Amino acid sequence: MNARDPLQPLLPDDSAAIAAFAANTWDEQIVPALTDYIAIPAKSPMFDADWQRNGHIERVVRDAASWVESRRIAGLKLEVIRLEGRTPVIFFEVPATRAGSTGTICLYGHLDKQPEFNGWRKDLGPWTPKYENGLLYGRGGADDGYAIYASITAIEALDRQGIARPRCVGLIETCEESGSFDLPAYLDVLRPRLGEVALVVCLDSGAGNYDQLWLTTSLRGNVTGTLKVEILTEGIHSGDSSGLVPSSFRILRQVLDRLEDAKTGELLPGSFHCEMPADRLAQARATAEILGDEVWKRLPWACGADGTPALPTTTDPTQALINRTWKPTLSVTGAEGFPELKNAGNVLRPYTAFKLSLRLPPLVDGNRAAGELKALLEDNAPYNAKVTFHADGRVGAQGASGWNAPTLAPWMEQALHAASSTHFGAPCGFIGQGGTIPLMGMLQQGFPKAQMMVCGVLGPKSNAHGPNEFLHVPYGKKLTAAVAQVMAACP
């Protein structure tokens, strides 16, 4: 019998069998496993300094590894690798089933989580999983606990049908939500074992809707850190001192005005901007045609001043997509130095501190931007106040750079559209994402010829990092089958 040509589409019966296997595995194995996973507060080390002693990361790693080892995949080898003082990674290998195949498919995900946040629905919570109407609620299921389970299921679906594929390796980390600062050390150790990577499958991204497969074409970089303004050594009576002592909050506002136009949200330093490539602009326009006003209407807007919803910075779908993917933005994500409202007396506070998140366009160097940001905020402090900015540091640097996907190879483009049409009934969509996945830049540098399939279940209202995060299980089933089909097409 002649071997199947990977460039030829799968037979309908094979595609149907893959879809059925993926759906059954999700129902019988993955949803129960993720239900247990969500209940474990395995917060990333940036949010749990005592992660080793608390043992939550160790538990989710152990549970995921045990699940993988229970699957019937010939030649599967799995190892939990632990470097001293670093969060662990799971590494697995599965030999090729296609004769003569020399390339490797690298599958990536992470098991660490963001912290709780507030505002959860009364019957929900970050560590109390609930499966309702096809949605699995709770922290981390969609970002990104499902990835290892879906990756193994995609491999197993192909093997069960006798559909040949290249060698596969898996890299599952536990530091992604902290900027993957532990990952470079593991990549150095694992580089000889990765092989020649031909395709990277990263299941840590989002979807424009739940009606088709979506390929992520770009990611923003990020600089996070704490901006602190100190003016007093202790709090003092505001009636006695205000007007003489400058408010630490006002000084902080002045400092931020160097960075951002408060009226428009435009970032002022030109070095934080870059030109958007023509092909990405064309893709944004095509995506805007698909999604329309849902690009901005999908967000949970508060009730505005006139009783209608609050408004975005733009209602133009194309510009909205550009703003969230290729424009630098500043967000204040936390504050310190403020008492609770119920305890806020007439006291002039000694300091104000903000946690800043500076999102950077894909082509801006994150480490350089972090240095420029520090100088901009600290230099020439008003009133000779003590102004400091301490970046959190990411991946061995002070800031994380973004990522712009390589040009699609003909086989990859064909496979994406075929897989999306088969399992979703619509062609593949292309969308930039505003988040940061440090691994992608690392792998693209290490394997410049590799194709990148970055996708995920984070579609409308899934709300990763926020309250009521959910995993859209029907989409997860179809995504798993689509990933398997693309893997089968990898030459």
Layout of SSEs?
Blueprint (H helix, E strand, L loop, with lengths): L11 H27 L12 H4 L1 H14 L7 E5 L7 E6 L9 E7 L19 E3 L2 E3 L3 H20 L6 E7 L9 H12 L2 E6 L11 E6 L1 E10 L5 E2 H4 L6 H10 L20 H14 L2 H4 L19 H7 L5 E8 L10 E2 L2 E10 L5 H13 L7 E6 L11 E2 L5 H15 L4 E5 L4 H9 L4 E4 L15 E3 H17 L2
Parallel strand pairs: 3-6, 3-7, 7-17, 8-16
Antiparallel strand pairs: 1-2, 2-6, 4-5, 5-18, 8-15, 9-13, 9-14, 10-12, 11-13
Question: How would you sum up this structure, described in words?
Answer:
This protein has helices at 12-38, 51-54, 56-69, 141-160, 183-194, 238-241, 248-257, 278-291, 294-297, 317-323, 366-378, 410-424, 438-446, 473-489; strands at residues 77-81, 89-94, 104-110, 130-132, 135-137, 167-173, 197-202, 214-219, 221-230, 236-237, 329-336, 347-348, 351-360, 386-391, 403-404, 429-433, 451-454, 470-472. The chain has 491 residues and is an alpha+beta fold. The chain has two domains: 12-219 and 402-489, Zn peptidases (Aminopeptidase, 3-Layer(aba) Sandwich), CATH 3.40.630; 222-276 and 325-401, Alpha-Beta Plaits. The chain has a six-stranded mixed beta sheet with strand order 1-2-6-3-7-17, with helices on both faces. It is globular and about 85 Å long.
CATH architecture of the largest domain: 3-Layer(aba) Sandwich
- The best one-word shape is globular
How is the largest sheet built, in terms of strand order? 1-2-6-3-7-17
User: CATH fold name of the largest domain, please?
Assistant: Aminopeptidase
The count of strands amounts to: 18
Distance between the termini: 19 Å
Note the total helix count. 14
| CATH homologous superfamily (4th level) name of the largest domain | Zn peptidases
Class from secondary-structure proportions: alpha+beta
Most strands sheet: 6 strands, mixed
- Cα-atom Rg, whole angstroms? 24 Å
CATH class membership of the largest domain:
Alpha Beta
| β-strand amount | 15-25%
Give helix % range. Answer: 25-40%
Counted up, domains total: 2
Could you report the average pLDDT, rounded to the nearest whole number?
95
Spans of 5+ residues with little confidence (pLDDT < 50)? none
